[in-house]
Amino acid sequence: MTAKSIIRIDSAPPRHWVGDGFHVHSMFSYNQDAHLYSPFLMLDYGAPYLCEPRDVASGATPRGVGSHPHRGFETVTIAYSGEVAHRDSSGGGGIIGVGDVQWMTAGSGLVHDEFHSPAFSQAGGMMHMVQLWVNLPAKDKMTKPGYQAIKNNDIPKAAIPEATVDGASVRIIAGNHSGQSLAGSIITKGAASTFTPMNVWDVRIHAGQTVSLPQPEGWTTLLLVQSGKVTANNGKAAGAAQLVMLSRSGTEVSITAFEDTQLLLLAGEPINEPVVGYGPFVMNTRQEILQAVEDFNAGKFGQI
User: What is the pLDDT of residues 61-98, one digit of tens each?
Assistant: First the structure.
């Protein structure tokens, strides 16, 4: 296999608030170099931070983001600690707890809100989450909205063959992985259904381990290092809150961990279509954006 080369390593920019509940680093967005990240549009990394308790039982408002629209893409929320309560106008909703994933297809348009769950608000604690925006191809941008509530226990987990026992593992949120599952069977399919081919994997690697996580030729491949320190294909080291972009050419992704490491691997087949976005709407043309605004203002996205 030919190794994918490192294109660049980006450190997290300063945090900013999304609403009053999510303190995130925007690792990339469709506003700059969208074609380089396709099929992914945006990645907000909510590195661990402590949330003080809020007495919602006495009427205080939970922290979070109020009602807002989306059209033309999907949002993926991965919870590592903390809890988020979600509701949307298509009828989707629930509590996203530790280890859970919410995969929401905005498609033709919906309205949703995201707040700290009542239990988490009341108790406080550590919040650590990722939200990823995944583009939809033109033929699917106006698909019916949908919602995948994926529980931690439903996400396949696999050992990485060349690692020592318990030396490395993968949670296969989306895509395919050929390793040995922790239950002893071969894993081929992740938990989420996707419109275009991609791999979204949570990866844990213990210090001193080198593992191979090959990705298809021609695919965008990104590594979000959440903790620890690694090198990819013997390149420059990357540490916590850094994003590694690998070349689309090549297939081999060899990762060496110098410390116990947690990372999110994002790989996908690029969607070679124009990206035109305006806030929560991502379409292919300016006219489609104007139509999205008009439809939202006319109430066509529904209500929660």
Answer: 999 999 999 999 999 999 999 999 999 999 999 999 99
d(CA 302, CA 219): 36
What token pair was written down for 187? 């894993």
Cβ 182 vs Cβ 161: under 8 Å: no
CA separation, residue 244 to residues 35, 56, 235, 236 (Å) = 16, 40, 10, 10
What is the value of pTM for the model shown? Answer: 0.96
State how far the Cα of 246 lies from the Cα of 241, in Å rounded to an integer: 16
Residue 20, both tokens: 């009053």
For 115, the token pair is 């707040």
Question: Could you give the 3-state DSSP secondary structure of residue 88?
Answer: strand
CA nearest neighbour of 69 among 103, 102, 104:
104
Residue owning tokens 């988020």: 84
Query: Quick one: three-class SS letters along 133-192?
Result: EEECCHHHCCCCCEEEEECHHHCCEEECCCCCCCCEEEEEEECCCCCEECCCCECCCCCE
Q: Position of tokens 């009602």?
A: 67
Distance between CA 284 and CA 205 in Å, rounded?
39
CA 13 to chain centre: 17
Residues of the chain with pLDDT under 70: 162-165, 179-187
Enter the tokens of residue 7: 């294109």
